[in-house]
Amino acid sequence: MQIVTTHKNADFDALASAIAATLVFPGTLAVLPRTLNPNVKAFLSIHKDLFATLSAAEVPYEEVERLIVVDANCWSRLERMEPLKGREDLDLWVIDHHRDGGTISARHRVIEEVGATTTLLVRELRSARKILTPMQATLFLAGIYEDTGNLSFPSTRAEDAYAAAWLLERRADLDILNRFLRPAYSERHKAILFRMLEKARRIRVNGHRISIPHTQVEGQVDGLAVVLRMYMEILGVDAAFGIFHDPSARRAMVIARSQSDSVDVGAILRRLGGGGHPRAGSVHLRDLPPEQIERRILEILREGGRAAVQISDLMSYPVWTVAPSTRMEEAAALLRDKGITGIPVVEEGRLVGMISRRDFRKIRKPAQLKSPVKAFMATEVVTVSPAENVQDAARLLVKHDIGRLPVVQEGRMLGILTRSDVMRYFYDLLPD
Question: What residues does 198 pair with on adjacent strands?
């Protein structure tokens, strides 16, 4: 049995990616979370007979041989997939357009910077010359349009436009698209917006106009992103972080929207355990008062004036590595040929040591160059996670007088952060 699933609070890109994956991988069953965005829920209520889906409760986990995760790369964002976590015999795939490191160590990873995950799957459908129904084409176009703002967001790539054109050729229905992509706005939404505007505050952080409204809500309220978007546009701020809290349930939802290329709200909320895109993000938090959440958001925003940049944005990958059994002379040749000063030593995907030019000072006889790297490597390696603070990484480089930090998650190498990468960050030399 093979299944595909996506993140909680699934949007159209998540739904479209999951359904597209069932065509790219024949025989795959789509497993959807219980929580769906309101417009996605409305779409499925009418068209559910056209798209076969399961709930997580219906999955016989012991029969699952392949899991495909789309539009997400964190176990915590999936619903009831814990029984499959850590299964060594599982054929695990991740297909996503978010470049953050994530927590899913998949054997197969298709992660590219495009506007929507659906675009990556449509590319495979085009290559395979799959025949689509008009409704399939409509759903896939909805996924692309929603995550690219109808191809207008800065994250949009040429490939998103090619995919959209191909879907329009296959009779994607723009009338249906407009009906379900147009957000609902009710009297309750209007009342919430009025309360937000009554207490509206603008804050200037590193030259950006920011607003972080706190609003109490009771129970489940759908469509709060619509309210926050209107709030941001009325105030004319660069970015808004709406903290919607329910005191009785001791929980809060933070929804963020940005109108500035310089404020990547998705990256900022990933630091709080959530996720999103440069222009949109969200996170669910428990047992934290709104004031504490606001302080944390402001701390991240103020860090070096580059709050949107994480180590995962700066690190280099793929990384040149050697095995513990590699001979020292081979490691020396690799250091010389690649113009680098150190190489991680990796065994079965896990970091076990580091060999650097300094370690060659231990060699006293030419014959020792035939020895394996494990005889000379440093085994106590200072590492950093992809979501760490860049300033903290810089302190580690200085404290330990090292030129590189392996970026590691759950023991597995994701990339490497060098002193040069950190210099580019601090001197504002990041690529556009």
Answer: none
